[in-house]
Amino acid sequence: MEQVKVVLNDNEIPKQWYNIQADMPTPMKPPLHPGTGKPVGPDDLAPVFPMNLIEQEVSQQRWIDIPEAVLEKYLIWRPTPLCRAFNFEKLLGAPVKIYYKNEGVSPAGSHKPNTAIPQAYYNKIFGIKRLATETGAGQWGSALAMACKIFDLECRVFMVRVSYEQKPYRRMMMNAWGAECIPSPSTMTNAGKQVLAEHPDSPGSLGIAISEAIEDAVTHKGSRYSLGSVLNHVLLHQTIIGLEAQKQIEKIGVYPDVVIGCAGGGSNFAGIALPFVRDKIHGKKVQIIAAEPTSCPTMTKGPFAYDFGDLAKMTPLLPMHTLGHDFVPAPIHAGGLRYHGMAPIVSHLVNEKLVEARAYNQMETFDAGVKWARTECFIPAPETNHAIAAVVDVAMKAKEEGKEKVILFDWSGHGLVDLAAYDAYLSGKLEAYELPDEEIRRALKAIEGLPKP
Ligand SMILES: Cc1ncc(COP(=O)(O)O)c(C=O)c1O
């Protein structure tokens, strides 16, 4: 019998996160203060984040210790299994070995608790009582709701309205973990009221929900804001995925030719990829692919520019691939991938050609996801389906070329709370939406006049 799962013992869990900033071949551009045009300093960020996380955000230290209290909570579901997808391989009939890291086994159902737990922990020890955040598909909001309960913090989540309506069970999960969940745009903030005044039927976007959550955090005493992707410290926490995967593949004596992850703000992709990017910087031959939706083609069509992370321009200017901060993506079902920007770290790696980006439409991704569900049986999240579509793409090319390939990818979450999306796909209600170029040109007008990287 061939081995399907590679598991690590609890005591083999990595004890440090990996910080790619120590190994970047060229320095990254700093975030800028929109008022002064100068790099932001820790004090500028202090009303929004606790200082211990700001220190991680700017740290150049290669390895950062994972606090004991965080490791203890990680052990509830980590280390996650690395599995070989024999059944899916058989269906594809290509000369590939496919390994996936199953992040869907976490209590919230995705990779998001990997950073929710440390973020709640660092806020708690800094003396913060309450966190505000946004969520797209609801995966991040539910992960933070759970983490806040663990560390006894209050939690308010602004959920993008289209997802709030598509995914009522995510709101219920947040409520079950004791958090409050509000559809965004809402009337609770000035940012939300402004959007509603102009667009009463706005489906919402992550950019709008971020504005609402930041405003909420800075206007409530003892509160801070928490972000589920994009920022350096978030990507740092997610490296636990790739670090575990490296221990697991070492046990079975394989090394991937290709590493794949889906990318919304870039955190699960970075989580699996960054330890392998490190190897690549040191001479290993490995192809690293980030998969995004054609409806929100941040890396494949968006320029590298300074832009705000949110609609109301409350964040610093981040150097990233972007479609413009007022871009509202089509209401596709992969809610977690509907973000106008991309993590500065991932954007930088794309510019350095250490990472390549590919885009897939909703029909291709659900086709891949349904094939997966009918072979490997776990039903993937609509976001994860983008990674699976990229796996299919790579496998089919390998078949065409008659080349053997080892593929490793991050199975970022399960889709058990996204079944309405599968229902829409299976009943022929979805279409292969691709963002028209004129819409990109229109949206990019929002960044005209901002500093250029
Ligand atoms: C299952 C899943 N995968 C991927 C993503 C995309 O986020 P990120 O790019 O930060 O990993 C999300 C976001 O909500 C998600 O829920």
Description:
With 453 residues, this protein is an alpha/beta fold. The protein has helices at 42-45, 51-58, 68-74, 86-92, 113-125, 139-150, 161-166, 168-176, 190-198, 206-218, 232-238, 240-252, 267-281, 298-301, 344-351, 362-373, 384-401, 419-426, 437-444; strands at 5-6, 16-18, 63-65, 82-84, 96-102, 130-135, 154-160, 180-184, 223-225, 258-262, 287-293, 304-308, 317-321, 356-360, 405-411. It has 19 helices and 15 strands. The strands form 4 sheets. It has a 7-stranded mixed beta sheet, with helices on both faces. Strands 8-7-6-9 form a 4-stranded parallel beta sheet, with helices on both faces. Helix 11 (232-238) packs across helix 13 and helix 12 (240-252) packs across helix 13 (267-281). The termini are far apart.
